[in-house]
Write a structure and sequence with these properties.
alpha/beta, Arc Repressor Mutant, subunit A, D-Maltodextrin-Binding Protein, domain 2, 3 domains, five-stranded mixed beta sheet, three-stranded antiparallel beta sheet, 11 helices, 12 strands
Length: 305
């Protein structure tokens, strides 16, 4: 029996789905669009079905294509994990390490650590990713990250990760000074809040169910790509919501936001540095060095600008 499906073809389908077009996917894979078109056409012919609906402006997966990609991503993750494991066994050093960083955090403290890392001569390539909310866990679970900085709350059920607590993040409710809620007496009730649009940063999870927080049933929602955009939306007055206290306080000090007491405040949230649980002998030298240095980071360092 001839296997018609290749890892290369799965990578192409994954890239097209994530980027939204053959041209953007080709750029991300450092290939020309015609090569991707040929790969997909050939696979569709071999399988006897259509993987993409090409009737609109955006390349969208058919039902069969979506199912193929859903299961195919597990194969891609397994292949990448196996490749890294074999390379690490052969040399004792990882060839690549991907680090997911929460959109709440600054990159600068990590860049200082990487300056020292490159002085060690491991030869390991480092990739930095930006993840939002539960995407910090999803990046580990899916294998697209080896270390996650800022994974929030509890780990997803059925997963096993090693963690180090960075600290507790406090959230406050904030509105623009000209927003209707600014003039209401405190504490604001749920019935006050639900009448107004809330803004949420979209969870960047690809495989795990996206997480949501601070949204009331029936409330109008504006979804934005990250926490900085959420902050700007609240400053503009187009929407309301919870923000990490350090962000809200900074904006409040500049007169851009008002922090309002609410009858049901959001609880503090633990945030972690996390990585896949492994025996010490299974962790390469580069990863060991990075984890040791990352353990010295504090929540205050990562939040400061």
């Amino acid at each position: 029996m001839t296997i018609k499906l290749s890892l290369e073809a799965l990578e192409v389908i994954d890239a097209i789905d994530r980027k939204g077009s053959f041209a953007a996917a080709a750029e991300s894979l450092y290939r020309v669009p015609s090569a991707l078109t040929y790969t997909i056409r050939r696979l569709e012919e071999d399988l006897g079905l259509e993987l993409f609906d090409r009737s609109g402006h955006r390349a969208t997966l058919t039902e069969a294509g979506a199912e193929l990609l859903k299961e195919g991503r597990y194969l891609l993750d397994a292949a990448h994990t196996l490749e890294k494991r074999v390379q690490r066994i052969a040399t004792g050093v990882e060839t690549d390490i991907a680090i997911a960083v929460s959109d709440l955090f600054e990159f600068q403290p990590l860049l200082h650590i990487l300056q020292d890392f490159y002085q060690q001569g491991f030869g390991t390539r480092v990739k930095l990713l930006r993840e939002v909310y539960g995407g910090s866990w999803d990046a580990l679970q899916s294998g697209r990250a080896d270390i996650s900085i800022g994974a929030p709350g509890d780990a997803p059920p059925g997963t096993v990760f090693s963690t180090q607590l960075l600290g507790q993040l406090e959230f406050v409710f904030a509105v623009a000074p000209h927003h209707p809620l600014a003039a209401l007496p405190e504490p604001l009730s749920a019935s006050d809040i639900v009448q107004h649009r809330v803004v949420a940063a979209a969870d960047s999870s690809r495989n795990l169910p996206p997480r949501t927080s601070g949204i009331l049933s029936g409330q109008d929602i504006l979804t934005v790509p990250d926490m900085q955009t959420k902050l700007q939306a609240q400053i503009s007055g187009v929407a309301i919501g919870y923000l990490p206290k350090f962000l809200a306080q900074r904006a409040a000090n500049q007169g851009q936001l008002l922090i309002k007491q609410v009858s049901e405040p959001k609880p503090v949230a633990p945030t972690f540095i996390a990585w896949r649980q492994q025996r010490p002998s299974e962790i390469g030298k580069a990863m060991q060095w990075l984890l040791k240095q990352l353990s010295t980071l504090t929540l205050e360092q990562l939040l400061s600008k």
